[in-house]
Amino acid sequence: MARTRTATSCSSPSAISVAAPRTSSTRSEGAWPAYLGLPLEEIRRRAAEAVAALASCAACPRNCRADRLHGKTAACRSGRWARVASAFPHFGEEDCLRGRRGSGTIFFSWCNLRCVFCQNFDVSQQGVGAEVRPEGLAAIMLELQALGCHNINLVTPEHVVPQVLEALPLAIEGGLGLPLVYNTGAYDGLESLRALDGIVDIYMPDVKVWDPALALRYLRARDYPEVARAAFREMHRQVGDLVLGADGLARRGLLVRHLVMPGGIAGTGEIVRFLAGLSPDTYVNFMDQYHPAGRVSPERFPEINRRVSDAELDATLDAARAAGLHRFDPRRGLARLAAR
Question: What CA–CA distance (Å, rounded) separates 307 from 149?
Fold first, then answer.
């Protein structure tokens, strides 16, 4: 995904035009976005617990126990504050997210995975970006809302859930009223996901590979398949299948991404059967944009040093339909097959 604007610390939220502050008395059950149905005090309580736990961090499945609260780092290379690479209205996302005015995308720097084929390698593995305090992150959210975005799209948030929770009450007090999209590589800690229950409207996990040995080779995380399956179940428990509004925009639910890989190394057949078992109404975007990137080269990972063929995309769709899935994103991935 292209990144067209570098984020700053946004330390001057007063420069952003926002609505009058809200108080907890305006909240009601069944509110949308979901977080408006929770008292601010509850969000602050969850944030305080999550931030305190950074002292022995287990925010993600790495369970590094690093003292991030005092600036120590480990697998995700992130300390006390979130680091943001860029933030802008994104028009390359799924139609149900981008709409007419774009998805308000915030790219967090660093990652708890080590995908050798990452297409945003400078952000995920080199940490391009700037640290932001809670006030700065809240200001970024409000700025995206002021630009007319349809949602706040948190990209690679697995390791910064405490920081997102910490910023959210400030953004709500400033007038935030957009649904949150949790855009993840699916290597998520269950406790972090449970802290987001009733806060996130749309979960968008990108399921990568099924086989533990290949997860170790390509992601440096042998337990990725097991962790991802548990994360998918928790996400679906919270928000259910994807629901679209009359305007075609996503309102709530699970939207799954799957990057089709050369040679079927992702284990797509097993993945789609799992997704169909979760729900036959699972909404899936099969993405076709894989290309050799990151650490991939003819010498190091020759088996994935090529693009995906039309035949491989055909096989992906056949497998998904055979598994019982029927809701496919029309804009990406398989759209190139439909155009033939």
Answer: 32
> What domains can be seen in the chain, in order of their start residue?
30-338 (3.20.20.70)
How far apart (Å, rounded) are the C-alpha atoms in residues 301 and 298?
Answer: 6
Half-sphere exposure in the Cβ direction for 205 (13 Å, CA):
27
pLDDT in tens, 69-122: 999 999 999 999 999 999 999 999 999 999 999 999 999 999 999 999 999 989
Backbone angles phi and psi of 205, in degrees to 5: -80, 145
Long-range contact pairs involving 167-171 (C-beta distance under 8 Å, separation at least 24): 167/82, 167/134, 167/135, 167/136, 167/137, 167/138, 167/141, 168/35, 168/43, 168/47, 168/138, 168/199, 169/40, 169/43, 169/44, 169/47, 170/134, 170/135, 170/138, 171/137, 171/138, 171/141, 171/142
pTM: 0.90
| β-bridge pairing 82-90 and 103-108 | antiparallel
Say yes or no to pLDDT of 338 above 60: no
Grouping H, G, I as helix, E, B as strand and the rest as coil, residue 28 is coil
CA distance 55 to 73: 11
Whether the bond between 33 and the residue before it is cis, its omega within 30 degrees of 0, is yes
Backbone angles phi, psi at 26, to 5 degrees: -85, -5
CA distance linking residue 228 with residue 232, whole number of Å:
6
pLDDT per position as a tens digit, 305-328: 999 999 999 999 999 999 999 999
What is d(CA 331, CA 81) in angstroms, rounded to the nearest whole number?
35
